[in-house]
Design brief:
The chain is mostly helical. The chain contains 4 helices and no strands. It has a domain of 43 residues. Keywords: Heme, Iron, Metal-binding, Signal.
């Protein structure tokens, strides 16, 4: 019983950390990108699905898509981190 409770707490803690990490990375994204239509000068994040965001981030990371800063920014994150933040932003 204790092992099951411990495993449940580990899973919940891991999920909470993933949510926190996604929220922290997403906060960086919204510095330049508006969450909704606005005057950010960059594409609004709300205009894209999680799958579109994930693909764009991976394309920037692996230089399949070019930009002034996004290639360098995306390279600072693992593929898993990019997927988590894309899923987080895609739900907004």
């Amino acid at each position: 019983m204790r092992a099951a409770v411990g495993l449940l707490l580990l899973v919940l803690t891991t999920a909470a950390r993933a949510d926190f990490a996604a929220e922290a990375i997403a906060a960086n994204c919204t510095i330049c990108h508006a969450r909704e239509d606005g005057d950010a000068g960059m594409p609004a994040l709300a205009d894209q699905s999680a799958a579109q965001l994930r693909q764009s981030l991976l394309d920037f990371k692996y230089d399949r898509k070019t930009a002034t800063l996004m290639n360098r920014i995306a390279k600072g994150y693992s593929d898993a981190e990019l997927a988590v933040v894309a899923d987080y932003l895609g739900k907004r």
